[in-house]
Amino acid sequence: EMFFSLISGSRSSKTFKPKKNIPEGSHQYELLKHAEATLGSGNLRQAVMLPEGEDLNEWIAVNTVDFFNQINMLYGTITEFCTELSCPVMSAGPRYEYHWADGTNIKKPIKCSAPKYIDYLMTWVQDQLDDETLFPSKIGVPFPKNFMSVAKTILKRLFRVYAHIYHQHFDSVMRLQEEAHLNTSFKHFIFFVQEFNLIDRRELAPLQELIEKLGSKDR
């Protein structure tokens, strides 16, 4: 019993990819702290709003990094259940299947297993977040003109990981007692993308019912 709980404890706390850190003492770090503090108030609609006097790009950048870290952690808890065998295709229920392409290394969409797809996806996101020309961490370095479209693509892809977890692995999430954590993270994500209109409604279709349920509880 003891031995098992030690193993499972360490399994579930491992992150899937290295965490992306926002440098302490930076303005972005202050923004992240602000985001965390407002989340604590429990009013998510208010928590996602652009703080007064802040730069929209910077607010979106900080939150995108934060969502990457959250999804990373959530997926990390269920990686052992998401295998080539259990998930030979990347899907979000029977009606939605995703094929991977990043436009640079893989131009023609390829059909691959969910773990492979998610590995490609998270590696790709991490590369964008680490690119100082796209996500500048230094004060006064401007965001590029195409920042918003890059952020939208990142968030659209991160949504697919939530969709896969909800459709294919929710039973595992329940067994691990992670559902409150997953629901809070997803609700925060959805309110954020709704506030700034960052993901096309069609893209959200696989979790439409859940999204409506989360929204109606809040009015």
From TrEMBL:
Query: Does the keyword Kinase belong to this entry?
Result: yes
The keyword Metal-binding is assigned to this record: yes
Q: Which SMART domains does the UniProt record give?
A: Mob1_phocein
Record's keyword terms, sorted = Kinase, Metal-binding, Transferase, Zinc
Q: Which residues bind Zn(2+)?
A: C82, C87, H164, H169
User: Which Pfam families does the entry mention?
Assistant: Mob1_phocein
Q: Which GO terms describe its molecular function?
A: kinase activity
Name by which UniProt lists this protein: MOB1A kinase
At the highest ranks, the source species' classification is: Eukaryota, Metazoa, Chordata, Craniata, Vertebrata
